[in-house]
Design goal:
Bound molecules: FE2/S2 (inorganic) cluster
Shape: globular
Strand content: 15-25%
Strand order of the largest sheet: 14-13-12-15-17-16
Largest sheet: 6 strands, mixed
Length: 652
């Protein structure tokens, strides 16, 4: 096939169409044509979320003939992922099917990507104001024949006299505007200085306001906060789904995308920078300012997001011994990365702890400051990659465990992101086994209204569902479905046992939403990894119990803490000492924006945290296997005694 031969691809029901190079897969075609198709595995044919159906026949409206032969033949991977009946009906995985000829493709409701409901609300922060960027007003003596010193030297002397600042440098963009600006303001000016060291902007006359942005670049969600640097006030918040998601849901699939595509790194870098510019524009729009008025910016993100944003090759953090390009924080001119804020402004990226414990974790660290406490805190940042911090003022240990994307909805048959239509709460009656559930953006529960329109389950429901099934006796402590269940919700189908959470009339996809035995296993694996990680960290620290558990992350504040405890996401801790703090990484970024000491604190503590590589702990597998049980095979949970069934014998 010639490289540049093209075919027409039409996506239904949106009707989006266009010419696409033959040989591109349908997922790539959807990106090119602006059609959002779900995909959580980075086009690896693993998640099975990108299901589409080929439409067959002659389409008069478009004047094209579409058939199964318009695409490359079904692959073995697709045969494994799709049911036989689906293969017969012409279903394909968009990431596997390549375009050969003109084709019409239908994207079913469950494969359409809903707009993510961003749950990264900003918490209250209380911190003394001392930003890295400050503004100073100066009034300079006019240049005369007797005093014709250069404008920059005149400004330096003015800053020294009025504010006792020795400012050795001026940004080139500010320098270019210096002469006219001074004269325009009749020698009165407002000077913006970075770290007391460099003039990054000069404005005519007296200008009161200066703005800064803090951004948390998550693998799935990017959250941004606009602050007034003169008062510390939070002016606006905005968020978006990380646009890199199209290239792979998790860190490893994005790293592999950069390895398998020659332009991959550049593509992923450009994608996030364009996304950031959109987000900054939105923040500025909300505040009624121009994005160029933002004079400082702090960014956090996991090590892979950090590297991709800085256009640094992430390949070495993807394999042992996982060294990042640098540990220390970094200050880069925003313009060097194409970030469209004040042209002289810097972008400060918080330091990295280890290959898989990034600047986002450092953000959590400086927001939650376990190093100032006597109590031993366990901080769990739940995401596709689970990051853990344990410690107090004596010592800090961090670790990272590959929970997999189950809590983000991937690898779960009806799992989905937190978007409209996602079930977010589940309660199962212990006697009748009837299910009550609530859907995002709807007030009523399913027993109060028929019109639920459920599409799948998001992370908070995925954390609810296992404890609820367990307490209702539907599964036992090992995660196996009970055999003698008398409820129409339980059945054994060709693929195995499953339990119905929502009936077709309660959904918008016209089919049962079920939780399968495989789903139960995937959730157990995710929670088991987290629990085992926490336990091994506690052993390394030398404690049997933790005093406090803090749940952080994109949906941290939406997790039901009792469900999380019953699931066995972490070792026993009194329920009243468990806190959900939401996006602590974003809070840490805001703190570093508003107080320069927090940047030094971040650098200092990022280096003092001891990293525990869990996979090197010889009994990790054993700990992991025991932690797969609900809530654990052996450990006692005195705090949950009133909730757990009395007999914990695996057959309850
Ligand atoms: S199977 Fe296609 S994106 Fe995951």
């Amino acid at each position: 096939m010639k490289g540049n031969e093209k075919a027409i691809v039409i996506f239904q029901p949106s009707g989006r169409r266009g010419q696409v190079e033959k040989g591109k897969n349908l997922k790539e075609a959807s990106v090119l044509l602006g059609v959002d198709i779900e995909g959580l595995c980075g086009e690896q044919g693993v998640c099975g979320k990108c299901k589409v159906r080929v439409q067959e026949g002659f389409f008069e409206k478009y004047g094209i003939e579409s058939s199964r032969e318009s695409l490359t033949p079904l692959t073995g991977t697709e045969r494994d992922d799709l049911a036989e009946s689906e293969c017969e009906q012409g279903f394909r995985l968009a990431c596997m099917a390549e375009v050969l000829h003109d084709v019409v493709v239908f994207v079913p409701e469950e494969s359409r990507l809903g707009k993510q409901v961003v749950r990264k609300a900003a918490g209250e922060i209380d911190i003394p104001l001392d930003p890295a960027v400050k503004t100073y007003s100066v009034e300079l003596p006019q240049a005369t024949l007797e005093d014709s010193v250069g404008d920059w030297e005149r400004l330096q002397t003015g800053l020294q006299k009025a504010h006792e600042i020795e400012c050795p440098t001026i940004d080139y963009h500010a320098l270019v505007k210096l002469q006219n600006t001074l004269r325009e303001g009749e020698w009165k000016a407002t000077v913006t200085v970075w770290m007391g060291n460099e003039v990054i902007r000069i404005q005519a006359g007296e200008v009161e306001k200066a703005y800064g942005a803090a951004v948390d670049v998550g693998s799935t969600t990017v959250a941004a906060y606009l602050c007034d640097l003169s008062t510390g006030e939070l002016i606006a918040t905005s968020s978006m789904m990380n646009p890199q998601v199209t290239y792979g849901e998790d860190v490893m699939s994005r790293i592999s995308y950069t390895l398998t595509n020659p332009e991959g790194l550049e593509q992923l870098h450009r994608t996030i920078i364009e996304g950031l510019n959109g987000l900054l524009g939105d923040l500025a729009g909300q505040a009624g300012i121009q994005a160029e008025e933002i004079v400082d910016m702090v960014i956090v993100g996991n090590t892979c997001m950090h590297h991709l944003m800085l256009n640094i090759d992430p390949r070495y953090i993807g394999k042992s011994p996982f060294p990042p390009a640098l540990h220390h924080s970094v200050d880069i001119k925003a313009r060097d990365l194409g970030v469209k804020i004040c042209p002289g402004a810097y972008l400060h990226v918080l330091p990295i702890e280890a290959g898989f414990v990034g600047a986002d974790n450092v953000g959590v660290l400086i927001a939650e400051t376990p190093y100032n406490e006597e109590k031993v805190r366990l901080i769990i940042d739940i995401g596709t990659n689970g990051e853990l911090i344990l410690g107090n003022r004596e010592k800090l240990i961090s670790s990272s465990c590959a929970t997999g994307p189950a809590f983000e909805g991937a690898e779960i048959k009806y799992g989905m992101r937190a978007a409209p239509g996602a079930i977010e709460r589940i309660v199962i009656d212990r006697e009748s086994k009837e299910v009550r559930f609530k859907v995002i953006d709807k007030e009523a529960w399913n027993d109060e209204t028929e019109n639920m329109g459920a599409k799948g389950m998001c992370g908070s429901a995925i954390i609810d569902v296992l404890p609820q099934l367990f307490l209702a006796g539907v599964i036992d402590r090992t995660g196996r479905f009970a055999k003698d269940l008398e409820t129409p919700r339980y059945r054994v189908v060709e693929e195995g046992a499953e339990f119905v959470i929502a009936w077709p009339r309660e959904t918008s996809i016209d089919q049962d939403i079920v939780i399968t035995q495989d789903d139960v296993r995937a959730i157990q694996l995710a929670k088991g990894a987290m629990y085992a990680g926490a336990k091994l960290m506690m052993r390394a620290f030398g404690v049997e119990r933790v005093d406090e558990v803090i749940l952080a992350g994109a949906f941290g504040s939406y997790i039901d803490k009792e469900s999380a405890a019953l699931l066995g996401l972490f070792p026993d801790c009194p329920i009243e000492n468990i806190r959900s703090v939401g996006n602590a990484a974003g809070d840490g970024a805001r703190m570093a924006l508003l107080n320069v000491d927090k940047r030094s604190e971040a650098n200092e503590w990022a280096r003092q945290v001891e990293y525990l590589e869990l996979t090197l702990e010889e009994d990790f597998d054993k700990c992991f296997a025991q932690a797969m049980w609900l809530p654990h095979m052996k450990d006692k949970f005195t705090s949950l005694e009133h909730l757990l069934p009395r007999k914990q014998d695996g057959k309850s």
